Amino acid sequence: MADSLAEQLGYDFMAAAFAVYNELGVGFTEDIYQEALGRELVSRSIAHVAQSEVILEYRGQPLNKRLRPDLIIGDQIIVELKAATAIVPEHEAQLFNYLKATRKRVGYLVNFGSRDRLQWKRFIRPQKD
Fold first, then answer.
1. Who's near 112: CB < 8 A, 6+ residues apart?
2. What's the pTM?
3. The CATH classification of domain 2-124, taken from the options 3.90.320.10, 3.40.630.30, 3.90.226.10, 3.40.50.300
4. Average pLDDT over residues 18-37
């Protein structure tokens, strides 16, 4: 049940991301896309939290520095937004670290900066972590 809910949330989220890309196009900064996407998610009644702090631990002790994923959708999906010319391996590594730190299984990497089209990738973290 949880996987099918995350799948539907993913479809709904990506529909919102495409709506933002179609409206704004390419050339804005990441924070502009994030704010527009937040408004689009609200208009579609998609539960989300922006820039939520994630506490990390090192050897059982909390670190002072925090992770701040761009979005958490429905408490199930981690989203990392970019406004770069292309998705690169460092972006993917960042999302994988967010998935591991939050123990979430599903993540989306969405890049609004490509001139040709909205770029996106969906990642599933193995359950064994």
1. 20, 21, 24, 26, 28, 30, 33, 81, 82, 83, 118
2. 0.90
3. 3.90.320.10
4. 96
